């Protein structure tokens, strides 16, 4: 196993951080690694807002559903899908900007953000830092957009706490490979694999002194929610993502 694979396989999300700062050079490297990711048509549809201010991290902690690690970690990076620069490119070229009328823009933006986030995570972890992604930034996006002064065509997708961890954690087990890797065609026979994973999941929780619960129970409960999460159904449109073709 090489160093890159070792770093990727050693991932865990931390929810407790030491107070010490993240060195500016390390932060720069993390963002450059995120920027090095591939992107749709090289449009680079990602922006990262680096929040170090304690007061602003505190506000984002509350807006993310009172997640204390957001205030505790010395740096909070907000990964946004960003078509604002594409709109400006259109102005420079005298071309209309049409992309945000298509629901595909959401797939493009979310994919670009996901890849960039993943690069940033790998870079941070390889530098001895700990992280946790925070989808909680999508709970109250109207307030997050206002706080970070995001212009039209920019939308906060996920945050990332970065800092030196103040805890040790075992790795969280994953689904069996066969549940995820489908040879040639999709195999929907996953019940048995999920049941096997439930046992592993329970053992993991027990080892940590947490209440034992099946993975399927947690996920099933979470996905009963409707709307799923946050206020994106209102704010996406306000930011210019009208997705007109979805309604036709
Ligand atoms: C896009 C994304 C958003 C997430 N949002 C949150 C969050 O808001 N709060 C939280 O405590 N964990 C969050 N997580 C962390 C997941 O719960 C965690 O990755 C998962 O339980 C697997 O654990 P591990 O990362 O330690 O392996 C998020 C993860 C991802 C990928």
Automatic annotation (TrEMBL):
Keywords for this protein: Flavoprotein, FMN, NADP, Oxidoreductase
Residue intervals of the Nitroreductase domain: 9-164
Pfam families: Nitroreductase
Any GO molecular function: oxidoreductase activity
Top-rank taxon, per record: Bacteria
InterPro entries according to UniProt: Flavin_OxRdtase_Frp, Nitroreductase, Nitroreductase-like
Family: Belongs to the flavin oxidoreductase frp family.
Name this protein carries in UniProt: FMN reductase
Species per Swiss-Prot/TrEMBL record: Paenibacillus jilunlii
């Amino acid at each position: 196993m090489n160093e890159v694979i070792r770093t990727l396989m050693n991932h865990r999300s931390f929810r407790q951080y030491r107070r010490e700062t993240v060195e500016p050079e390390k932060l720069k490297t993390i963002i450059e690694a995120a920027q090095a990711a591939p992107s749709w048509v090289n449009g680079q549809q990602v922006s990262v807002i680096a929040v170090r201010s304690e007061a602003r991290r505190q506000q984002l902690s509350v807006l993310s559903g009172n997640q204390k690690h957001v205030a505790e970690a010395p740096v909070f990076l907000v990964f946004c899908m960003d078509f604002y620069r594409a709109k400006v490119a259109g102005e420079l070229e005298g071309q209309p900007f049409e992309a945000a009328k298509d629901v595909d823009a959401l797939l493009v933006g979310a994919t670009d953000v996901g890849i960039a986030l993943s690069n940033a995570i790998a870079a941070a972890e390889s530098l001895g830092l700990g992280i946790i992604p925070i989808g909680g930034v999508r709970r109250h996006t109207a307030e997050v957009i206002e706080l970070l002064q995001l212009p039209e065509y920019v939308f906060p997708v996920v945050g990332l706490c970065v800092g030196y961890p103040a805890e040790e954690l075992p790795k969280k087990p994953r689904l069996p490979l066969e549940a995820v890797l489908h040879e040639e065609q999709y195999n929907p026979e996953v019940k048995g694999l999920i049941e096997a994973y439930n046992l592993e999941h329970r053992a993991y929780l027990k080892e940590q002194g947490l209440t034992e619960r099946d993975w399927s129970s947690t996920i099933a409960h979470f996905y009963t929610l409707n709307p799923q999460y946050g206020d994106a159904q209102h704010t996406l449109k306000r930011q210019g993502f009208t997705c007109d073709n979805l309604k036709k």
